Amino acid sequence: MADVQFIIDEVRRSKPTTVIMGVLLVGGAIAASFIPVETPAPAWVPVVKWGGLVALVVLGILLFLLALQPSEKHPAVVLLTTAPESIVWGHVVVVKRNGQHTATILKLYTDAGKELEAPLPRSAEGERRGLALVREVAPRAATGYSPEREAQFKKAPASLRTG
């Protein structure tokens, strides 16, 4: 079995942020519920307001529940360990905000057309290990990003397999 422990560790590191985001969404929705709707407002305004607030609460609860899930059950970890033969393409995305490296993500694509993301350590070593892992567990999968591969994936995911 492939060593996915470095991905599990990154999933574990992201849990506090996920919990905080869940709590903030629920808290923000509850706080926004106290903002009154003006009386002469059209009838649809309260419906949109309460519908949006309910959506925020549900999203917050889902994030909170996601954080409670064991790191080993993260969808990308499960894919890499139980069904790597379904991976047709993988590449690494480096996320930068205001010039700062904020995240490194391994994007995995399956022959069923699904896209999964797994956090990686924020370093060149993390990028290297992520792509090496894809090459190890799914040797027939394409690696590296290109717009042509993205278009090919959208048309026929399984066609990305090599050899």
Written overview of the protein:
- With 163 residues, the chain is an alpha+beta fold.
- It has two domains: 5-71; 75-160, no CATH class.
- It has helices at residues 5-32, 44-68, 75-82, 124-137, 147-155; strands at residues 87-97, 100-110, 115-120, 142-143.
- It has a four-stranded mixed β-sheet with strand order 3-2-1-4.
- Strand 1 (87-97) and strand 2 form a beta hairpin.
- Helix 1 (5-32) packs antiparallel against helix 2 (44-68).
- The longest helix is centred in the N-terminal third of the chain and has 28 residues, at 5-32.
- The protein is elongated and about 65 Å long.
- The two termini are 22 Å apart.
- The model has no long low-confidence stretch (mean pLDDT 92).
